[in-house]
Automatic annotation (TrEMBL):
Keywords per UniProt: Membrane, Transmembrane, Transmembrane helix
Signal sequence segment: none
Region span, Disordered: 121-186, 216-263
Positions with biased composition (Low complexity): 127-138, 146-157, 216-250
Name of protein: Protein kinase domain-containing protein
Organism: Mycobacterium noviomagense
TM annotation in the entry: 191-213
Bias kind Pro residues: ranges: 158-183
Length: 370
């Protein structure tokens, strides 16, 4: 996208969530820019990085999320994130703005984190404790007048009636003054409104992240290429297979599924499953390398379906937890391992004519979804 900033984004929450990119003359398509790349002041990518790459797009998405949540359109200070920001969302923003370009979480990785953030905001709204309505106290009634029905004892004759007092104009009523303002506890409506604003902000960021991810994964290349080893992070333009096979309808196990127990002694030669129809495509998963544990293969399958809800041959990324934190694995690996906090970033794609999805990442981890 290149020049991402609020001035170039138009979003709507009704009738359904949507984001529209405007002022698109400098977008890069198939690695080619129609006009010279420019950036909005205050929204520049870090110094020394190329213009208009998926990594600069990811950086500006993180900057947008920070500024929306902080309510400050100029800040780059992560300390300005509100204390109420969900932990996973805080982590992905921090990783995006702090990590080197190729170690930033890409837009595809945000959908998992933002889904949890939206659930968190909705949960807060449901559990907000209503404030008790203060009970007003009625003013004390005026004193009851005392009526003397008889004259004092010892009076032989009724006393002469007292002359009526001379008429005088009653004093004017005191000038009205408004009561002093009282600090009222926040009402449930105000609490819910604040939570609703937070949820709306998160939805906006989520829609933008999904839109960017869709653009990155659907942009065709000018010269189709194939690769037997998909990279941990996609390149600026995604490669596509030489043919366009139809999406499979049945589950076809890869021939090289690992059948031996993993390093923990667990045997999962039958794979793992989601849903009730285990014959449907991409509802099963198994190990593709000896280094991959059975539990991690199951984690990848569950994360894939929790993130996307339907399979696709397109390149996608999922955030997956492992038995060992990702940074620890990366520190001992020959090549850097893509991480999102303590979790692993796995890239999943159907290569060539394969009727299965291959997910790679971690330290030579490979999981087949079939």
């Amino acid at each position: 996208m290149g020049d991402i900033s609020p001035k170039n984004l138009l979003f709507s929450l009704v009738p359904h969530e949507g984001v529209y990119f405007i002022d698109c003359d400098a977008m890069r398509i198939n690695g080619v820019s129609a006009l010279a790349q420019m950036e909005t002041p205050g929204w520049e990518r870090p110094a020394g990085e190329d213009l208009a790459t998926i990594y600069s797009d990811a950086y500006k998405l993180g900057l947008l999320a920070l500024r929306l949540l902080a309510g400050d359109h100029d800040t780059k200070n992560l300390q300005h994130l509100p204390a109420s920001t969900p932990g996973l969302l805080r982590q992905v923003i921090t990783d995006t703005l702090s990590n080197p370009s190729q170690q930033r979480p890409l837009p595809e990785a945000w959908s998992y984190v933002l889904g949890h953030a939206i659930e968190h905001a909705q949960h807060q709204k449901k559990t907000a404790t209503p404030t008790a309505t203060p009970v007003s106290v009625a003013p004390a009634p005026p004193p009851t007048p005392v009526v003397h029905s008889r004259p004092p004892v010892g009076s032989s004759a009724p006393p002469a009636p007292a002359p009526p007092p001379p008429y005088s104009t009653p004093p004017p009523p005191p000038a009205w003054a408004p009561p002093p303002p009282q600090r009222q506890p926040a009402s449930p409506a105000k609490i819910w409104a604040g939570v609703g604003v937070a949820a709306a902000i998160i939805v906006i960021v989520a829609v933008i992240a999904i839109t960017l991810a869709t653009h990155n994964t659907s942009t065709p290349t000018s010269a189709p290429t194939t690769s037997s080893e998909p990279s941990a992070y996609p390149s600026d333009s995604y490669s596509t297979p030489t043919s366009s096979p139809n999406t499979p309808t049945a589950s076809v196990p890869p021939p090289d599924l690992v059948q031996t127990p993993d390093s923990y002694g667990v045997n999962c030669s039958d794979g793992y499953h989601v849903g009730m129809n285990h014959s449907a495509w991409a509802t099963n998963a198994g190990r593709g390398t000896d280094q991959t544990s059975c539990q991690f293969a199951n984690n990848v399958l569950q994360a894939y379906w929790n993130t996307y809800h339907s399979p696709s041959r397109d390149s996608r990324q999922v955030i997956v937890g492992g038995a060992v934190p990702c940074p620890q694995v990366s520190a001992n690996a020959v090549t850097p391992v893509p991480c999102s906090g303590n979790d692993f970033v796995m890239t999943c794609v159907a290569n060539g004519d394969d009727p299965w999805i291959t997910c790679t990442g971690g330290n030579n981890a490979k999981v087949y979804i079939y």
